[in-house]
Amino acid sequence: MTSVTTECNRLLRGLCKKLLLLPFFLTLSLNALEVGTVPPEITLSGDAGGRLDGSSWSSSELRNKVHLLFYVDPDEKDLNNALSDAVKAAALDRAKFASVAIINMAATWKPNFAINAALKKKQKKFKKTLYLKDMDKALVSQWGLADDNSDIIVFDQAGKVLFYHAGKVEGEKIEEVIRLIKENM
After folding, report:
1. 79: alpha, beta or left? (left if phi > 0; alpha if psi -120 to 50)
2. Which residues, including other chains, have CB under 8 Å from residue 25's CB and lie 6 or more apart?
3. How far apart are CA 96 and CA 64, in angstroms?
4. How far apart (Å, rounded) are the C-alpha atoms in residues 3 and 11?
5. Which residue, 17, 72, 95, 112, shows the most beta carbons closer than 10 Å to its own?
6. In Å, how far are 9, 20, 33, 55, 120 from 51, measured between CA atoms?
7. What is residue 99's DSSP assignment?
8. Over pLDDT 90: what percentage of the chain?
9. Span 37-53, average pLDDT
C-alpha cells in the first residue's frame, strides 16, 4: 500500500508542476510571432526607445514595401553579417524594399551611451537602413521575439510576416530570405 501511495503522490506532484507551467507556455504561444499574420502594432517612443534622433517609430510603418527587420542584442551584433552581406549583394530595389535594425538595448551589460555612439556611426555608414532602439524589450514581450539573440523577420507590403528566425541565419535560410524579398517586392 505504501508503494501505491508513494507512486500516486509522485504522479500528483508531476501533474501539479505541469498545471502550474501551463499558463506560462500558453502565454508564450499566444505572443509568438507567426508567419502569415500581421503582428500587433508596437510604438517605440520616449523612454521606451524609437529613432536615434529621439522621434517615435511605429510598426505600422512596416508597410508599402517589403521589410527586412533585424532585432538584435548588441552582444550578438555580428551573428547575421552573412545575411546582411547577401542582402547588399542582391542589389534590391530600395523603392520596394527597406531594412530596419532594432537594437534590444535592455539585453546587454554595455552602457547605453556607448551603444548610442556606435548606432549613430552605423546610421551614417548604412544610410538605407533605419536604426531604432527598444529600451524595454517591447518586441520580446509583445511579439514573443527571442531575447538576447538576433531575430530576423521579413514582412510583405501589407505588414504580414513572411519569415521569422531567431539566431544565426545561414545557407539555405539566407537564400530563402532573399527569394521571399524578391518575390514579394
Report:
1. alpha
2. none
3. 8
4. 12
5. 72
6. 55, 40, 23, 5, 10
7. E
8. 77
9. 96
pTM assigned to the model: 0.81
Q: State how far the Cα of 82 lies from the Cα of 33, in Å rounded to an integer.
A: 23
Q: State the cell numbers at 169.
A: 541565419
Q: Which residues contact 141 (CB under 8 A, 6 or more apart)?
A: 31
Cell 521589410 -> residue: 67
pLDDT at residue 139 greater than cutoff 70: yes
Task: Report whether 161 contacts 39 (CB < 8 A).
Answer: yes
Q: Which three cell numbers stand for residue 28?
A: 508564450
Structure confidence at residue 14 (pLDDT)? 52
CB 170 within 8 A of CB 79: no
Q: Is the pLDDT of residue 143 over 90?
A: yes
Q: Are strands 129-134 and 49-51 parallel, antiparallel or unpaired?
A: antiparallel
